[in-house]
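Protocol step 4 of 6.
Sequence for ClpP/crotonase (Leucogyrophana mollusca) entered exactly as in the expression construct, tag removed. Do not edit the line below.
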Amino acid sequence: MASRNASSLQPPSHSDELKVSFPQEHVMLLTLNRPRHLNAMTPQLTSDIATILNWFDDEPSLWVVIVTGEGRAFCAGADLKAWHQNQSSGRVNEQEGVASSVHGFASISRRHTSCKPMIAAVNGSAYGGGVEMILNCDIVVASEDAVFALPEVKRGVVAAQGVIPRIAKVAGHQLASEMLLLGNTITAVQARDRFRFVNLVVETAAVMPTALDVARQMTANSPDSVQSSKQGLILAQKHHFEDAVQTHALSLVSKRVYHGANIKEGLAAFSEKRKPKWRNPAKL
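Step 5 output, structure tokens:
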């Protein structure tokens, strides 16, 4: 099955607050495009991201997505001025909003329905919801001058869109408390070495090339296997060991691996000492 040319891909309509591009085969790039506002999230931008990611999930020729920000910030989190206006006018529905949000902040922080990998290319500062987004990505590439913070407690709010259990699991209770209860800023090296939610720290100019190289390494592998492996990781967050293993083994994504064309191609390529030619995954 030949893959679709990027020029033939037609994503759904969206506002100028989000840029959508296809920098290499099987890869989609989402760029948050509110640089004057440090890419702070708006309802429109959240809606755009949701629409595009739902389309991405259903497009067989796209295997990996990269998320980044335009300008000097990745994402400054929620628009606090708009939040202040809502609070001042009496429009207080935060609890219901958090509880009913299927995919969380920016339609990313709690997104667990997709088996396709997501890479964060952190080009600058990430605060609040921006960090919530990053913690739900599979690989995080950060510039050496990037900074991270969960400063919600300094503004009287709470980082409640999924980051609390994630940072507790990744960093441990004490280090998670340091970020959540103090609200202080940490460096990219600290995020990598102490808090353990950044994979790679590179020069600023190398952030996007590095993220694209990571995506290229992913797309060199069987998409069926990659997506099944990610589903296994998601299930590991939800279930105890035996339940996670069994649920994964009996899932439709695993069935696609063992009954699909790519497993045959991968094993044949190994036997014939050649590179495999992967096909787009069959729709589930």
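Step 6, annotate. The mean pLDDT is 92.
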